[in-house]
Specification:
The protein has 225 residues and is α/β, with parallel strands linked by helices. It has helices spanning 17-28, 37-44, 49-59, 66-84, 94-101, 115-125, 148-160, 178-186, 218-224, and strands at 4-7, 107-110, 133-135, 171-175, 190-194, 208-210. It has two domains: 4-15 and 88-224, HAD superfamily/HAD-like (Rossmann fold); 17-84, DNA polymerase, domain 1. Strands 3-2-1-4-5-6 form a six-stranded parallel beta sheet, covered by helices on one side.
């Protein structure tokens, strides 16, 4: 029986990947480390900001220390918040699905994005109050595909709802990338994948792949599980 649902953020709730790409390039191009959109999709999508910058420097044959990395992350976060200030749109059906789950099942968010990237968008969409817990890049040492973030999300939900018998095997993750799927399944969480960012054949490891969340509600997720 389904005990809890955990949403990814980028590529599931909103199509922020082009916005992240634009923000990264604003920081990296002046350093001679920019790359094409296709390369972002092929290699960088799914990394948190820390690992994305590390990978860009590695690809450019440069080194980066902790202090420089911290500064670049701050610059990218500022660029991203400028980009989203004009407004963002959710993926079709996702806000309706979140609202149908809220109050019926424990609900978590597990993202490789920073909290400062996520919070303004949740506020814009009117779903700031929807999630019982959120795990963001600020709180974990290892980004997806490492399972750390999902392990933490499951532990938090289990602690918040001790009477519901929440374990990883009774949770469902909603993801859109191979890295996200690997992170969730590595923590023992089943994955419903949405083909927002990758075609179905790239989403192996999910128990089910759908083209859209339109028309799916809490009861529908339970029946899928």
């Amino acid at each position: 029986m389904l005990a809890a649902v955990i949403f990814d953020f980028d590529g599931i709730i909103v199509d922020t990947e082009p916005l992240h790409y634009k923000s990264f390039q604003e920081v990296l191009v002046p350093l001679g480390l920019g790359y094409a959109w296709d390369e972002y999709l092929r290699h960088y999508i799914g990394f948190d900001d820390r690992d994305a910058f590390r990978e860009a420097f590695l690809a450019g044959g440069k080194t980066i220390d902790a202090e420089e990395l911290k500064g670049l992350i701050a610059k990218k976060a500022a660029a991203f918040n400028r980009v989203i200030a004009s407004g963002v749109k959710p993926y079709p059906g996702v806000v309706e699905l979140i609202r149908s789950i809220q109050g019926n099942l424990p609900l978590g968010l597990c993202s490789g994005a920073l909290s400062c990237d996520i919070s303004p968008i949740l506020k814009q969409l009117g779903i700031t109050d929807a999630f019982d817990t959120m795990v963001t890049a600020d709180e974990v040492a290892a980004s997806k595909p490492h399972p750390e973030s999902y392990l933490l999300a499951v532990d938090r939900l289990a602690a918040l709802f001790p009477g519901r018998g929440i374990t990883a095997g009774k949770c469902l993750a909603i993801e859109d990338t191979p890295a996200g799927i690997a992170s969730a399944t590595g923590a023992g969480v089943k994955v419903l994948a949405v083909a927002n960012s990758y075609p179905e054949e790239r989403l192996a490891g999910a128990f089910r792949v759908v083209d859209s969340l339109v028309g799916i509600d809490c009861q529908g997720l339970s029946s899928l599980f």
